[in-house]
Amino acid sequence: MRQTKENHWPQPLPSPDLLYADYYNQIHHLAHNIVCACCGCISHGMNDHESLSIVDPALSVLAVDPSLVPFDFTSGIPQLDVRHIMLDSLGITSDQLHLHICSLCHPSIQRNRLPANALANFRWIGPVPDELKDLTWIEELLIARGHLVGKVMRLQKRNISSYFGIKGHVILLPQETIRLLDLLPMSPSRLPDVARVVWTGRSLPDADQLRRYFSVRKAKIYDALRWLVANHEDYKHVTINETEFSQWPPVFIATDLMQSMGHVQDTTAEDVGRIGFATENMDTSEISGDIPITASAILDTNDLSNHSSASSLQQLSTLVSDDTTINVVLGNSIRDERIDATYFTSSFPTLFPYGSAKHIDPRRTSVLPFRTWVKLMLRHSSRSSFLCEIVSYC
């Protein structure tokens, strides 16, 4: 048998026309964004979903007591709303007569059992209110109750002629997660404890050019914090520090963070090692906002692998002195995501505006493993890059 195969090797290549036709058909078969009305996850195969009528009695397993949900979850379809059916409205067909249900949720619904992945299984997130929209990354840090990771952010001027698909660094280091902050906002002087900024380029820009990256809007933070205290499960006992706010001008610069910024002049070796293709050219002035903050690597704190950018990361580590290093705090008193339900929702309030959809909830009829919870959040229809920070942490 082996000798026969060797004698006939190499086999003639398939017809290019057939290869292209197969590729074309496969791409178009998966070129659909289909949302499951039950779990809210996006998939792409037309055959991966079943269709259920909006009046199907089996949908009653997705009913949720409205008094448990802090936001309006009605779909606008009377046949569903009268039964308080919790679903993702993007899973409703265009004729509003049927629902897309994925192959994972459909068998449970047919057996009159609540699917573990269902939004109705205490996985509802809720819409992001206007008060929490468009916060800058610095403003989010100031209102978070906890900081699970320290970040080193890379800034640089955009290069229109560049075609690098990936570049830059976000380095994540465990922070002091012993307790949550009950008095907010955090003082801007503490920002260097949880974040570092590195400018890459031959020369540093002047202060006026940097101002937009370090600006803080007092009213935006105040409105966001008031909304969180009134609506977020984990912020019920938070006290707004009016004294701190009274010291802030309407718009100010996070001076301590800006003054701690490091500088890397030559990034040629690093960028050459990162040359690649990108489906969307981010290096263009047409990108809205034009904020050059990019991520491409996670620091291997145990040095288990020899990453191509290890030398660059070592250079970054020399940019901060011993008295300003982001510390790794060890000990038994550190908050533990395995037992602390508020571990993520209190640290990422803009991702979890109501504090619901926790990774731990004793009210769930079926326990969700942590990795399953992360996958469901990543595939949620309303948040395509929902848990980048959490996944990086994990």
The helical percent reads: 10-25%
Please count the beta strands (DSSP E, at least 2 residues each).
12
| Cα shape | globular
List low-pLDDT spans. Answer: 160-168, 273-310, 320-328
On the 0-100 scale, what is the average pLDDT? 79
Strand content: 5-15%
Order of helices and strands: HHEEEHEHHEEEEHEHEHEHEHHHH
SSE topology sketch:
Layout: H1 2-7, H2 16-30, E1 34-35, E2 42-43, E3 49-53, H3 78-81, E4 98-102, H4 106-110, H5 137-143, E5 149-155, E6 173-174, E7 183-184, E8 195-200, H6 207-214, E9 215-217, H7 218-231, E10 239-240, H8 242-246, E11 251-253, H9 255-259, E12 262-264, H10 268-272, H11 310-317, H12 370-378, H13 388-393
Helix pairs in contact: 5-7
Question: Would you give an account of this structure?
Answer:
With 394 residues, the protein is of the alpha/beta class. The protein folds into two domains: 1-126 and 358-387, no CATH class; 130-355, no CATH class. It is 25% helix and 11% strand. The chain has helices at residues 2-7, 16-30, 78-81, 106-110, 137-143, 207-214, 218-231, 242-246, 255-259, 268-272, 310-317, 370-378, 388-393; strands spanning 34-35, 42-43, 49-53, 98-102, 149-155, 173-174, 183-184, 195-200, 215-217, 239-240, 251-253, 262-264. The strands form five sheets. It has a four-stranded mixed β-sheet with strand order 6-5-8-12, with no helix packed on it. It has a two-stranded antiparallel ribbon with strand order 1-2. Strands 3-4 form a two-stranded antiparallel sheet. Helix 5 packs across helix 7 (218-231). The protein is globular and about 75 Å long. Mean pLDDT is 79; it is low at 160-168, 273-310 and 320-328.
